[in-house]
Structures are given as structure tokens and as C-alpha cells.
From TrEMBL:
Domain NADH:quinone oxidoreductase/Mrp antiporter transmembrane: 78-252
E.C. number: 7.1.1.2
Protein name as catalogued: NADH-ubiquinone oxidoreductase chain 2
Membrane association type: Multi-pass membrane protein
Recorded GO MF terms: NADH dehydrogenase (ubiquinone) activity
UniProt entry keywords in alphabetical sequence: Electron transport, Membrane, Mitochondrion, Mitochondrion inner membrane, NAD, Respiratory chain, Translocase, Transmembrane, Transmembrane helix, Transport, Ubiquinone
Enzymatic reactions: a ubiquinone + NADH + 5 H(+)(in) = a ubiquinol + NAD(+) + 4 H(+)(out)
Short name of any one Pfam family annotated for the protein: Proton_antipo_M
Main location: mitochondrion
TM stretches of this protein: 14-32, 53-70, 76-97, 104-124, 130-152, 159-178, 184-202, 223-247, 282-307, 319-343
Organism the protein comes from: Planocera reticulata
Localization in the cell: Mitochondrion inner membrane
GO CC field: mitochondrial inner membrane
Biological-process GO terms, alphabetical: mitochondrial electron transport, NADH to ubiquinone
Length: 344
């Protein structure tokens, strides 16, 4: 697994990059087969006979074929991009991520959500030349669906992590193009949180999490999982809040520097073009802020559901739904003021 990872990231030859991707894929499959969950033998619980590892293998093979075809034939490079998107699980080809993760144990989820996606994410910058506009479009597509998924799956922690993976990969996809170093920082912080959360859940109580959360007697596990969920949510004073503020503020500083250069050129056509581009990117930042706010609401709903068991679960869900407006309003004020002071 480590060898395939290093081979993909540090090779200049397209064949070695492809070989590293395949080694990484075959190294992950044994972890899927060793899953202890009773639901892992059959992917679809009722009638289908598709095994989880075979399903993952099938998806990755499709991505590998498209990637190889696009990388070898330069005129078909779009296929290579689609292949990497399929392998990573970025919009619009993220459909396999929640379906697979919901059938895995926690250790396998940690690997699929972090290590498995390293080569594909960082190869976008080094192998293919993608414009920031395309990256933002794909990122927003995945982010919108992921936010909806988190808010409607807050009673199932595995699905919450699956949609969280889709949303964070959508942000990382843009960060890698904008700022490679900051993309690495964001990825390692996200991976650390996911692996830590999966290690906490990968214990004797893990089977309880297949459809719901830990029972009320496991207060220590509940508190630790709840803390990790709050960190995931991007609320202050956690580091995830600062990372997202930096990500959003980065658009402002990038656009402002270009805007000043256009003003100094004293070219009316170029100047008005930069003004329009600047305003459009501010609109994109506002869309990201709204999505991050709704994502945070989903994490908070999950946090509340974590401490609700039995008959109190329904009343807790009703309370969360009724308090959505207050949560959204509070988070909106918080994020907009944070962005404002960051720009200053």
C-alpha cells in the first residue's frame, strides 16, 4: 500500500504512475475482505450477490481504464480526468462512496476515506492541467449533494462519514489547484480526524453503529466521538474552522491582487473583465459559505443524535429540525463576520 502510494506520487513516467495506482487498489482490497461486519459478505442485503470487495474492484477498474486511455492518448485527456474522478469519488462520479462505506467496518472506512484517495487527488495537479473554473464547478456539484446527504443521514454515522468524505474531497480538489502546500495541510488534518474517529469506533461496540449510534452507557466513547464531530463541523475555536476560513479568504486575496494589477494597466476592456470576474468569484465564495453552514448544521444534528437513544431519539430529531433556523442564522453571522475580519 505504501509502495504504491509513493510510486504514484513521485514517478515521472505515466506507466509507473498507473502501476502505483493499481498497487494501491489491490492493497486496499484485503482490508475490505477482512471486515468483521456481517453485512460485508453481500453488498446489497436482499437479493444481490455482489461482494463489497468486488464492487470496489469493479469501480476502480473502470477508473483505471479511463485514466490509462486518457493519459496515453493526449487527445483523449478528458477521459483520464474522468478516470481519476471515478477512482477518488468526486462529483459527478461519487455514487459508489456512500454505497460502499455504509457496508464496511470502521477500519476499512478509515483506509478508503484517506489513504486510498491520496494518489488520485494529487495527480490532478501534476498530470492534468485543469482550470480553476472546472475544479470549482465539480467541487460545488459534489459539495451540494454531500451537504444534503449529511443533513438527511444524521442518524447513520457511516453515511455521515461517507458524505463528509465527498464534501472534503470537493474542497481539497480546489485547494490542490489553488495552493498545493495548503492542500497537503488540509488533507493531512482531515485524514488525522477520520483515522482517529475510525479507531475510536473500531472496537467491541462498533457493531452498534451499523444503523445507529452508541448506547447511553458508553459515555466516554460518546464524548470523544461527539468532540470529533464538533471538530468536523468547522465551528470555532476548532482548527477546521480556521482552515475553512483560510480557504474562503484565499479567493478574496487572489482576486484582489489581480484586480489591482488590472487597475494599474489602465486598460478599460481588461479592467471591466476583471471586475466581472471578481464579482463572480465573490458569488462563489458566498455559495461555499452557505454550503459550509448547512454542512455544520448536519454535523450538529449528528452530535445531538449521538446522545439520544431509544424513545428520546425521535424527540431529539424533532428538536433538531425545529432549531434548524436558529442554527443556520447563528452560523451565518459567525462565518460572515469571520470572513470580513479575515479580509481586513
Amino acid at each position: 500500500l505504501v509502495f504504491g502510494l509513493l510510486l504514484s506520487l513521485f514517478s515521472n513516467n505515466i506507466f509507473l504512475i498507473w502501476l502505483g495506482l493499481e498497487l494501491n487498489m489491490f492493497s486496499v482490497i484485503p482490508f475490505l475482505n477482512s471486515s468483521v461486519s456481517e453485512n460485508n459478505n453481500v453488498f446489497f442485503l436482499n437479493t444481490s450477490e455482489i461482494n463489497v470487495s468486488f464492487y470496489y474492484f469493479f469501480v476502480q477498474v473502470i477508473g483505471s481504464i479511463l485514466f490509462t486511455w486518457g493519459a496515453v492518448m493526449s487527445s483523449w485527456y478528458v477521459l483520464g480526468i474522468i478516470g481519476l474522478i471515478v477512482k477518488i469519488g468526486i462529483a459527478p462520479f461519487f455514487w459508489w462512496v456512500p454505497a460502499l462505506i455504509n457496508r464496511l467496518d470502521w477500519f476499512s472506512i478509515g483506509i478508503i476515506s484517506t489513504i486510498q484517495k491520496v494518489p488520485g487527488v494529487f495527480l490532478f495537479r501534476f498530470v492534468f492541467d485543469l482550470s480553476i473554473e472546472v475544479c470549482v464547478l465539480l467541487s460545488l456539484m459534489g459539495f451540494i449533494v454531500a451537504v444534503i446527504g449529511i443533513n438527511f443521514s444524521f442518524n447513520n454515522l457511516k453515511l455521515v462519514l461517507a458524505w463528509s468524505s465527498v464534501s472534503n474531497m470537493s474542497i481539497l480538489f480546489v485547494l490542490i489547484v489553488l495552493n498545493n502546500s495548503f492542500g497537503f495541510i488540509y488533507y493531512f488534518f482531515y485524514s488525522f480526524l477520520v483515522i482517529l474517529l475510525c479507531l475510536v469506533l473500531n472496537n467491541s461496540f462498533s457493531n452498534v453503529f451499523c444503523d445507529s449510534f452508541l448506547n447511553g452507557n458508553n459515555i466516554n466513547n460518546n464524548m470523544l466521538v461527539g468532540l470529533l464531530l464538533l471538530i468536523f463541523s468547522g465551528l470555532p475555536p476548532f482548527l477546521s474552522f480556521l482552515l475553512k476560513i483560510y480557504f474562503l479568504g484565499g479567493f478574496y486575496f487572489f482576486d484582489f491582487s489581480v484586480f489591482v494589477e488590472g487597475f494599474e494597466m489602465v486598460n478599460p476592456t481588461t479592467f471591466y473583465y476583471l471586475v466581472a470576474s471578481n464579482l463572480s468569484n465573490y458569488f462563489i465564495v458566498m455559495v461555499y459559505i452557505i454550503l459550509i453552514i448547512f454542512q455544520s448544521v448536519g454535523y450538529i444534528k449528528t452530535f445531538i443524535a449521538l446522545f439520544s437513544t431509544g424513545s428520546s431519539r425521535l424527540s431529539s430529531s424533532v428538536f433538531v429540525l425545529n432549531s434548524n433556523f436558529n442554527l443556520i442564522l447563528s452560523l451565518s453571522v459567525l462565518y460572515f463576520f469571520s470572513i470580513f475580519f479575515y479580509m481586513i
